Amino acid sequence: MARTQTTSISLGFQAPEFSLPDPKSGKKLSLSDIKGTKGTLVIFMCNHCPFVVHVIDELVRLGNNYLNSGINIVAINSNDVENYPDDSPEKMKQLSKEKQIPFPYLFDESQEVAKAYDAVCTPDFSVFDAAMKCIYRGQLDGSRPGNDVSVDGRDIRMVFEAILAGEEVVKNQIPSLGCNIKWKQ
User: Does the pTM exceed 0.90?
Assistant: First the structure.
C-alpha cells in the first residue's frame, strides 16, 4: 500500500460530468442525477483499502445524517479490478448492502472519471457547491489507521455545516491520505 495524499488543485474547478454504473441498483447514474441542490461530496474509494475500511462507518453516518439536507454524496471506485478483485462491482454491491451505504457507490472501469477529478488516493474527498464548483478538497478528519484519533468526520461535517448556514468554507484544507488508486497497466 503506497501512502498517497490528495493532490492540491485550485478550488473553484467545475465538477466534470460523468455517467457510471451503480452495481447495487444495476442502473447508470450521472452527476446531474446525483448532485445535491446545496452541495455534493464526491468520494473516490474502494473496498479493500485500510484507510477506507477505517472510515467507512463514518461515511455511512455522514450519508445518513445529511440525507435530506440538500447535500448529496456519491462514492466512486476507480481501481483496477483485474489485479484487485476485492474491488469488483459484485464486491461493491456486497459492501453497499452489508454496510447499508445510503448513497450511490459507482464503478469507474475506464478510470477516466478519477483522472478527470485528479483523484489519486482512496479515500479522496471533494465537496462542490450548488453550482458544482469545488469548495473543499481535503480530509474527512484527522484519523488514520493506527494514530488513535477518533473517526468523527469533523472536517467534512464543518464544510457541510458551512454550506447549510450559507457561510464561507475554511480555506486551510488538510489533504486526505490513503492508498494510491490502483491504475491499470
Answer: yes
